[in-house]
């Protein structure tokens, strides 16, 4: 089983990253997904951070 993590403050950015990744991947079985919303501290304040974790298997996974 493999794991892929996407993080950004914008849901639409993550959506684009996931779609591009799936297009590049070709075929995979998605086993589980998890989404977490948290806060990230940067020099000039706090920002929302969305993390999406995908557990998956490809046909070449053993």
Short description:
With 62 residues, this protein is an alpha+beta fold.
List its traits.
62 residues, alpha+beta, three-stranded antiparallel β-sheet, 24% helix, elongated
Q: What would you report as the Rg, rounded to the nearest angstrom?
A: 14 Å
Provide the low-confidence segments as ranges.
none
Kindly report how far apart the N and C termini lie.
Answer: 8 Å
User: Helix and strand succession?
Assistant: EHEE
Helix fraction bin: 10-25%
CATH fold naming = Dodecin subunit-like
Proper CATH architecture = 2-Layer Sandwich
Structural class: alpha+beta
Largest sheet: 3 strands, antiparallel
Itemize the secondary structure elements and their pairings.
Elements: E1 2-8, H1 11-25, E2 29-42, E3 45-57
Antiparallel strand pairs: 1-3, 2-3
